[in-house]
UniProtKB/TrEMBL annotation:
Record InterPro entries: AbiJ_NTD4 (IPR049503), DUF7014 (IPR054280)
Record's protein name: Abortive infection protein-like C-terminal domain-containing protein
Recorded superkingdom: Bacteria
Pfam family, one: AbiJ_NTD4
Domain HEPN AbiJ-N-terminal: residue ranges: 5-169
Residues of the DUF7014 domain: 176-302
Length: 308
């Protein structure tokens, strides 16, 4: 179901009381309840005793229990007798924010991956899931919660514009062009960032950028060493005309930007021993590197596609 722009929402915006900055350590009760409504849209055969909802809820429940090192999602004795769907619904309404994100990510991922299975209910199509995911993301934005569900994972968002115009296209291109290694590393960078592991986010960002360039070189049969650095890989892309000659002047500073951007920040802040004093990487710098990486990936992959 679409996110309806009802009167009270419009009034909040007019009064300036709607959230205009993202929060990351709170998930409002209203948002949790809205997510449960979305689950009910997805798993509607639960009330009819169908197997699809049972299988999905059980998979989510069992995965989380194993990862948390518990037998049940609830310590409530009575709750242990609940069906899996009820356990999941009770859990999301009471758990801490990080665990809300855990169960949201898993339920949407499991449901999407099971589309097409023999017992999938008739209403559950790729289009239906895309629409429900779009509602989920709009609810996150509506409540000012700085996360989005993209490519089967929850990702932290610092700027909705940058996310929509840079990060999302980078993920889409990596998936469409089957740059699997780079995609996994870019996802990993975002996962580290979401959990405040900013040094690790820098390292994975550079790995994603390097993997993108290595994949391009490999598919074009451009010879580079297996352990080629970012500088060497960038040189190979320019030397082989990834940027067309007539546009070389326009992009005269691009090579310097690429060479001095992600690799330099990663090497100085995240990639080497930190010495006697611990090196702190601020969150705003990690966010900058993630966005710079995404922009670089989009440019490289789009240029690669144009050369096919």
């Amino acid at each position: 179901m679409a996110n309806i722009d009802i009167y009270s929402k419009r009034k909040k915006r007019q009064e300036g009381s709607a959230p205009d900055v993202f929060v990351y350590d709170k998930v409002p009760e209203a948002l949790r309840i809205q997510i449960v409504h979305m689950w009910q849209d997805i798993f509607r055969d639960h009330v009819r005793g169908g197997t699809f909802a049972y299988d999905c809820y059980k998979a989510v429940h069992d995965i989380l229990c194993r990862e948390y090192g518990v037998f049940y999602l609830s310590n409530d004795i009575a709750g242990m007798m609940d069906d899996y769907g009820t356990r999941c619904r009770k859990f999301i309404l009471s758990c801490d924010p990080d665990r809300v994100l855990d169960i949201v990510e898993l339920t949407f991922k499991v449901a999407r991956l099971k589309i097409g299975d023999r017992d999938t209910p008739g209403h559950l199509s790729v289009r239906f899931m895309d629409e429900t995911i779009a509602e989920l993301n709009s609810r996150f934005r509506e409540h000012g919660v700085g996360y989005q569900f993209e490519s089967d994972a929850i990702m932290r968002v610092d700027s909705s514009l940058l996310h929509a115009e840079v990060v999302r296209p980078a993920l889409r291109l990596l998936m469409e062009e089957e740059f699997q290694g780079a995609e996994e590393e870019f996802r990993s960078a975002h996962e580290h960032y979401r959990h405040g592991k900013y040094k690790e986010a820098l390292v994975e960002s550079l790995k994603a950028f390097e993997s993108t360039m290595k994949t391009v070189c490999g598919r074009k049969s451009w010879v580079v060493a297996e352990n080629a650095t970012a500088r060497v890989l960038i040189g190979a892309l320019f030397d082989h005309g990834l940027v067309p000659a007539p546009m070389a002047a326009h992009f005269s500073a691009l090579r310097t930007t690429l060479e001095a951007g992600v690799p330099t920040l990663r090497n100085r802040l995240g990639g080497h021993g930190q010495g006697e004093e611990p090196v702190e990487v601020p969150d705003y710098l990690a966010a900058y590197v993630l966005h710079l990486t995404a922009a670089n990936i989009v440019m490289v992959v789009e240029a690669f596609k144009a050369m096919k």
